[in-house]
């Protein structure tokens, strides 16, 4: 069985990512891209679905771990009654090949180590053709081929084949150093040459430390902010600049439930907010690359704008079920692809236009392609903003006039108007101003509930939504406006449980059933809790905001990583992991606490 989600660590090479458990098992890895088929899928089933475990054979072993400095190089130290051993795991930033390295070092005494290598292509479904070969240097290696994919396992001690898997043991003494590596390559090509572990380790540490030194943030909680920024960088597909929402699929929002989604795609909303986090902390190159990805991806008819795309800009993200996988602790179905890509979510326009405005204000100049495309998107929104949509939470129920979507539509027009007025860019500014005012008047008339003293989830709903916390921070109303303060209080009262804030009430009923069209029940969305921190800080309640923020930091795992949600009933992280939205809102909250 897989481990609790928070017991996993992240490795990445800026093209894909692996999850390594505290038990020394790599239980998730897709190759060659984030959205490719998994070669290790044990986290969605068991060891038969693919994993690579290196750990002491003694069941009494305990483990502690850390990232080396400001990097994604992971060190796990195992302690047994007979000695200590360190396992170092890392993936060098991609250089035309995908490598995963594991180094085992004896620290004290003598430790018997076990290795299990179970390779399954296509999300644990395909058993490859596996054989022992000799590489260019004449060293023995294990080769696995299935269709277009090939993998090679090299190591100072190779496991033995038995019953469609490879396993074995070896003994480590103080001072022993053993290296292992796995390389993916197209099956029609020759086996790649072996890379030197010392050289790759030095280069990997050098890359991440050099990147981290560019961080301009030196305020409170810098270490956890930098770890979140490193996580956001690790979720970026370097070849195009796109950023996935998470490197996993179908880690459930409720263990045993059906809210299991594939997050290995680029949501415009998440990526736009991540761009703001990176710009606010000094990472202009990432912002420039993301803007280039965005402009290429959304080019075309503005009415064809999707809420998400593939890392290369792909539009077709058809959703299907991997029915041979039982799911994380039986949480089925396991979904590949995401049907929500066909939804209409008007808030995306606001998030994108706001992020591009921040980029513009920071000095990233517009060109004869970037600004005309933005103007076209806004003109398209002018014809459609009044229509119902599926909202920020991708409701699978009936489309509705969600208040947050209307507010973010206002943001889109507001940023377009300011681009004309501040940066002297061309555009239909009078029409944009008129539409901006029309949206604002409608939201104030239909989206605010006097009895609740709060804006509502959708017009006439009588319920609140944590996304409404963005109303003040996005400038729709001043942060000290009584209606904004009332909304903050309503969210605090209606949706908060301890340090956690629920997105909305999943059990709230409409004539058609639940508002999201799914059975009720999920964890608390961590981004909502960080939104509340920022809202409290922005409204002058910094002491309260700081207390809440530090409670939330207590929910991160030992490496500072966060999943999408936290379930207080079982005391565990839930949802896809690690989640960009959780980490980018953590950064925003920390920056708000550091202001003033």
List the helices and strands and how they pair.
Blueprint: E1 8-12, E2 17-21, E3 25-30, E4 38-40, E5 51-56, E6 62-67, E7 74-80, E8 83-90, E9 98-118, H1 121-124, E10 129-134, E11 140-146, E12 149-155, E13 160-162, E14 165-173, E15 177-186, H2 197-212, H3 222-234, E16 236-237, E17 242-243, E18 266-267, H4 268-280, H5 284-298, E19 308-309, E20 320-321, E21 335-336, H6 347-361, H7 370-382, H8 403-423, H9 429-446, E22 448-449, E23 454-455, H10 470-473, H11 482-494, E24 496-497, E25 500-501, E26 509-510, E27 513-514, E28 524-525, H12 526-538, H13 542-553, E29 565-567, E30 572-574, H14 580-594
Antiparallel strand pairs: 1-2, 2-3, 3-4, 3-5, 5-9, 6-7, 7-8, 8-9, 9-14, 9-15, 10-11, 11-12, 12-15, 13-14, 16-17, 18-19, 20-21, 22-23, 24-25, 26-27, 28-29, 29-30
């Amino acid at each position: 069985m897989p481990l609790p989600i928070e017991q996993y660590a992240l490795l990445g090479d800026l093209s894909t990512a692996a999850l390594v458990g505290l038990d020394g098992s790599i239980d998730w890895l897709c190759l060659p891209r984030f959205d490719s088929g998994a070669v290790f899928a044990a986290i969605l089933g068991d060891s038969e679905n693919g994993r690579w475990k290196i750990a002491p054979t003694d069941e009494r072993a305990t483990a502690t771990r850390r990232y080396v400095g400001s990097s994604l190089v992971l060190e796990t130290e195992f302690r047994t009654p007979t000695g200590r051993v360190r396992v170092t795991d890392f993936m060098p930033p991609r250089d035309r090949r995908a490598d995963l390295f594991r180094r085992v070092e004896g620290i004290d005494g003598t430790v018997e180590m076990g290795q299990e290598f179970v390779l399954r292509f296509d999300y644990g479904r395909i058993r490859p053709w596996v054989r022992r070969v000799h590489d260019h240097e004449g060293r023995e290696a294990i080769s696995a081929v299935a269709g277009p994919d090939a993998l090679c396992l090299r190591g100072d001690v190779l496991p033995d084949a038995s019953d469609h898997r490879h396993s074995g043991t070896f003994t480590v003494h103080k001072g022993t150093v053993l290296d292992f590596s796995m390389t993916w390559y197209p099956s029609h090509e020759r086996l790649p040459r072996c890379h030197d572990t010392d050289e790759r380790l030095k280069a990997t540490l050098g890359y991440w430390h050099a990147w981290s030194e560019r961080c301009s943030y030196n305020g409170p909680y810098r270490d956890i902010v930098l770890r979140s920024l490193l996580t956001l960088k690790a979720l970026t597909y370097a070849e195009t600049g796109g950023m996935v929402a998470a490197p996993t699929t179908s880690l459930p929002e409720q263990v045993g439930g059906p809210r299991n989604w594939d997050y290995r795609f680029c949501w415009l909303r998440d990526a736009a907010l991540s761009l703001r986090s990176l710009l606010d902390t000094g990472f202009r190159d990432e912002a420039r690359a993301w803007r280039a990805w965005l402009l290429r991806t959304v080019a075309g008819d503005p009415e064809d704008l999707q809420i998400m795309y593939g890392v290369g800009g792909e539009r077709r993200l058809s959703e299907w079920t991997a029915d041979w996988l039982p799911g994380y602790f039986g949480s089925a179905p396991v979904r590949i692809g995401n049907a929500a890509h066909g939804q209409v979510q008007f808030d995306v326009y606001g998030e994108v236009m706001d992020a591009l405005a921040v980029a513009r204000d920071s000095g990233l100049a517009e060109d004869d392609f970037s600004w005309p495309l933005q103007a076209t998107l806004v003109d398209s929104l002018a014809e459609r903003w009044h229509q119902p949509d599926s909202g920020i939470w991708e409701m699978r129920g009936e489309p509705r006039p969600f208040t947050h979507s209307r507010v973010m539509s206002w943001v889109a027009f507001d940023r377009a108007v300011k681009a004309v007025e501040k940066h002297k860019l061309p555009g239909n500014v009078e029409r944009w101003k008129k539409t901006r005012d029309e949206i604002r008047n409608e939201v104030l008339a239909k989206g605010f509930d006097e009895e609740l003293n709060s804006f509502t989830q959708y017009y006439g709903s009588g319920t609140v939504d944590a996304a409404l916390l963005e109303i003040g921070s996005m400038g729709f109303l001043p942060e000290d406006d009584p209606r904004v303060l009332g909304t903050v209080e309503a969210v605090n009262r209606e949706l908060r449980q301890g340090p956690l804030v629920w997105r909305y009430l999943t059990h709230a009923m409409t004539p058609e059933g639940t508002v999201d069209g799914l059975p009720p029940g999920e964890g608390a969305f961590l981004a909502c809790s960080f939104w509340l921190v920022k809202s409290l800080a922005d409204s002058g309640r910094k002491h309260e905001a700081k207390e809440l923020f530090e409670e939330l930091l207590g929910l991160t795992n030992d490496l500072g990583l966060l999943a999408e949600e936290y379930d207080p009933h079982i005391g565990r992280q839930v949802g896809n992991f690690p989640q960009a939205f959780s980490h980018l809102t953590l950064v925003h909250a920390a920056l708000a606490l550091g202001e003033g």
